[in-house]
C-alpha cells in the first residue's frame, strides 16, 4: 500500500512540479550590467558560408570545396564603460578591435593584421546601452562603411531587451521572442524588415517571383550578471519559385566569448557622455548612426565602361538569325545588366548607329532593363522612325517586349497610352498588339497600385473604345476583377458570335470558383441552348462547359453536363465534354467524388456503350516533365463539328506546383476554324451553323499572355490561296527575346555583412511552322516547331571595403519541340494523327567562385559541366496511336 502511494505521488505531482519549474524559469527577467572600472576582454569571431547546390553525388563532394564561398574573421575585442548615468542603468560603452585575422576557407589564405583589415582595428566605436537596449551608435568620421557595418554587428550582440516585442539592429526591425532560463537566454528573430534600396526589385507576379526562408537565433550565457558568451546564427535560403534552380544557402555566425575581466582603475571615466564622444571620437552627440547596416555600391564588370565593345564582341549572338538558341539568351541577359549602368545619351548613340541585324535585340534589352534612361532612349528612337520602312517591325518588337517585362513601370504604361492613336493609325494589327500589351502591363501593375493615374487612364480607354473586340482581347491579358462586369455584359447579350467568344475567352482568365450565381446561370443557359437564347456555335458552348466545370459545380449542373455529353445528337461536343470531365476528375478529388456519388446513386443510367470513346473530339492531360517542387504538363484538346470538320485544336504546356492547384501557362497554341464542312463532306449534309464564314486563325499564348491572333485564311479566296501557297519548309511566325525573372535583393546578416542576391532568366524563342493541304487527296500535314534558348543567371556576393567574395552561376539549355498533325478526311470517319517530340539537348552548368582581399590577394575558380538529355517522343491516346498507324500504314 505504501509503495502504491509513493508511485501515485510521483506520477501525479512530479510532472506538475517540473512543468511549473520550467515555466518559472522562462519568465525570469535577468538584470545584467557593466562596471566602469573593468575592461571586458572578449574573443570575437564571425564567419559566412554560401553555396549553390547544383552538383550531385560524388561529383558534389569533389567540387564543393571550390564552389563554396566562405571566410572567417577573428579579433580581440576590448569593451569598456567610459560613462554611466547616476542610477547606473545607462552606459556609454566603447569597443576596440585588435589582432584581426582573416581566413578564406576555400583556398586557405590567412592574413594576420593584413592591410585590408587595418580600417577595422584603427578606430574605436561607441554605443549607448540602457538595460539591454541600444539606442545610439557612434563612429569615427574616418571609419569606412565596411568597418562600421561589422562593428554594428558586434554592438547588436549586446542588445537583449528580454521582451517579446520588436528590436532594431543589423537585421532591421524584427519581431523577437525570448526564452529565459537560469543561466542563459535564447532570442529568436522573425519577420525582419530593413532598408529598401532603389536597386532592389522582383517580378511582380508571384509565380515568377522568389521566396526566401530566413531564421535568426541568438544565445546568451551569463556569469554573475556579466555576459559570458553571446552568439547569433543566421540561415537564409533565397531562391526562385519556379524553377528552383537559382537558389543559394547562406549561413553566418557571430560570437563573442569572455576571455577575462581586468580591473583598470586608471582608465578615464568621463563626467558626461558628450565629453566622452568629443575626446574619443571627436564627434558630437548629433552624429549618431542607426543600428541597421547599409549596403555598398556594387561594381560592374569590365564591359560597363565599354558598352560599344560588348555589342561588337557579341554581335553574332545578338543577331535575329541566332534567336532560339541559348547563346542568344545568354548574351541577352548580359546586355540587360550592362544597359542598366548606361546613361541615356550613351544608349541613344548605341541605338542610332547599331546595324539592322541587332537593332531589334537592342530594343528588347533596353525595354527589359526598365530604367528611365533605357525607356526614353527607345521611345525617342521610335518617335524618330515613324517614317521609316520598318517602323511596324520596330513598334511590334517594342510592344512585345513591353508585354513580357517582368516588372513594368507606370511610366511605360503611360507612354504606350500616349502613342496608342499614332500606332493605330499605322496598322490595324498594331492597334491589336497595343491593346494586348496594355492589358499585360495592367495585369502586372494593378496589385501594386490599384488607383494609379495610368490605370485610371486605361479604364477610361476601355469604356470609350468602340471596337469591343479590342477591349476583350486586352482584358484577356489584364485578368483584373475590376473589369469583370464589362465581360459579363457582353456574354449576357451574346448576340455577336465573335464578340461573345472573345468575352468568354477573357472570362477563362478569372477564377471560376468566385463566379456569382448570375454568371453561372448565364453560362448554363448558353451551354444548354435554353429557349430565348441567341443561337451560338460549338466553340462558345465549349468554353461555357469548361467554365461550368471549373466552378464549384453543383450535383444538378454536373448531372446535366454528363447527360448532354451522352446525348447522341450532341455527338462531337458530347465526346469532347466527356473526355474533359474524365480528365479533370483524375486530378480533382472533389469532382471525382461528385461523379462517384452520381453513378453510385443511380442518378444517371450508365452503360459501357454510352461511355465508349467514339468520335474525333478529344481532351487529355499528360506529364511533360516532373521535378522537385513542380511539374510541367501538356494538354491537348480537339473539337470537331458534327460532320467531322475541325473547329478547335489546342496544345497547352503549363506548370503547376505540387502543393497548389493554380496553373501557369508556359506556352499554348491553337487553331480555331469555321465553315470547313463543305470541304470534308461529299454527302451534302447541312453544317451545324450554315451561315458561318470560311476562316481560320492561329492563337498563341506565351507565359499566360495572349499574342495577336494570326489570320490563316478568310473566305474562299483566302482558303484557296492558303492551299496553293502553303510553305513547304518551316517559316518563322514569331521571334523574340523576352526576360522572365528579374530579381535583386539584399540580405542583411546579424554580423553586419550584407549579401546581394540576384537572379535573372530569359528565353530566346523562335516559333516556326509549315502546312500543306491537298484537296485532291483530302489530307493535310502541318508542323509547328518551338525552338528556345533558356538561360538563368544568378549570384550571391558580399562586397565591402576589405573583402569581396561570392558565387556566380549560369544554367542554360536549348529546347526544340516538334508538334506534328496529319489529317486524312478521304474516308469516314476522319483520321487525325497528332505527334509530339523533344529533340536531344544539353544543359550547361557554369559556376564561378571568387574572392579578393583589398590590395592583397585575389582568387577565382571556374567549374562547368554538361548534362545530356535524351530526346523523347510523347504518346497520346490509344485511339490517336491507332489513327497514326492507319494514316502512315504502320502495322
Briefly note the structural class of the backbone: alpha+beta
Residue windows where pLDDT falls under 50 for at least 5 positions: 1-29
The gyration radius over C-alpha positions equals: 34 Å
- Strand segment tally: 27
Q: What coarse outline follows from CA principal-axis ratios?
A: elongated
Beta percentage is 25-35%
Please estimate the helix content. Answer: 25-40%
Number of helices: 27
Task: Report how far apart the termini are.
Answer: 89 Å
Walkthrough of the structure:
The protein has 27 helices and 27 strands. It has 891 residues and is α+β, with helices and mostly antiparallel strands. Among the domains are: 297-384, no CATH class; 406-494, no CATH class. The strands form 3 sheets. Strands 1, 2, 3, 4, 5, 6, 7, 8, 9, 10, 11 and 12 form a 12-stranded antiparallel beta sheet that branches. Strands 20, 21, 22, 23, 24, 25, 26 and 27 form an 8-stranded antiparallel beta sheet that branches. Strands 13, 14, 15, 16, 17, 18 and 19 form a 7-stranded antiparallel beta sheet that branches. A hairpin with a 2-residue loop joins strand 13 (618-627) and strand 14. Helix 8 (326-339) crosses helix 10 and helix 16 runs parallel beside helix 18. The radius of gyration is 34 Å and the shape is elongated.
